User: Fold this.
Amino acid sequence: MKILVINSGSSSIKLQLLEMKGETALASCLVERIGEEIGLCRCVFRKGSAAEQAIERRQAIANHREGMRLALSILTDAQQAVLVNHDELVAVGHRVVHGGEDFHQPCLIDDAVIQAIEAVAPLAPLHNPANLDGIRVAMELLPGLPQVAVFDTAFHQTMPPHAYHYALPRRLYLENRVRRYGFHGTSHQYVAGECARLMAKPLDETNLITAHLGNGSSMTAIEKGKSIDTTLGLTPLEGLIMGTRCGDIDPSIHAFLARVRGMDIAEIDAMLNKESGLKGICGLNDMRDIHAAVEQGDADAALALDMLTYRNRRYIGAYMAVLGRVDAIVFTAGIGENDAVVREKSLAGLENFGIVLDPEKNRGRQSGAREIGAAASKTRLWVIPTNEELAIARQTLALTGDGEKGGGGKSVD
Ligand code: AMP
Assistant:
């Protein structure tokens, strides 16, 4: 029962082939630099096992179609024997960044779904068109296979109106659907499910704060298993401080910069998305480089670390107030899973709220899910690796009916 998961970006495509009996990743491919002079396709087979092998091709990759064709040909490499031919696939799952208000859950892709994804593209102009490229190419190269769209925004569609509306003129919502949507939903939903399972608690009785801290970051308040608030908004810019994105700022900064520096809207938007966050504060956007710079006495890097962890703490406090009772806080993604200093500083001083870290468990380096709270902590504290590909594959399988080709699909919800 093999499922292919596709995450198609503007100049890269990530693919993962999973065997759903046992839920193992058989191979992962990254196609990069599409449209550049020399592109790269690298596939890793049986990652982490003694039989791990990689195949790499460097060649011009004109477009998504060529990139996908190249990756699919490598995945069916006879020597690797993970996929003899495409008929072995039961379905394809696609990550789609923005589902607007139309998509509350994954759905089987047909023409109406493609149109609906196109219709919300203005809300994610960098992401949705690239996701659609991947969908169209996969439908062409893998005809007859059920294709499922899994939306980053879907998990947050349970937010109540008082959490998802902006205090703006009502017509902006009614005419342009300006509201908060939230992102990273697949990741928040996956780690929430894992956390409830690890605590042996029914998910629909579990309240959590999940912190997805990576290059892009967001925090979600989860009540009885459902998202009731999250830090990202209309676009993936609001909330926490990220690698190159500013997170919350005074919205008047736009007007101020236009007036005082003569910047136009496109320049300001690019600056807030690509030149701000950690990079804006200290010139570095990778947390590992920032720690190295702090060690060297770099004051800007120290400020960046203080600002990021202070913002995290502020939102943890806010979401504790929103939820009232918090069973656990979960850290995930690149920084959340690996950075003990960020976790420690983000939770510092919260003992009076029943949050007590165990510094040794926090600094432990073992992989996999682990608990990092002290015995005295009323709210349990966890590090849980995210696995968005597995989450997409599970949802794809669930929709395509026990892996039967074409069966059991649902339409847009
Ligand atoms: P992601 O977007 O989840 O892939 O996370 C990527 C980010 O995680 C990188 O830009 C780093 O800032 C951070 N990261 C990855 N590994 C580590 C590590 N060992 N220690 C601290 N930060 C890390």
Observations:
- Confidence is low (pLDDT under 50) at residues 403-413.
- The longest helix spans residues 299-323.
- The chain has two domains: 2-151, 201-388.
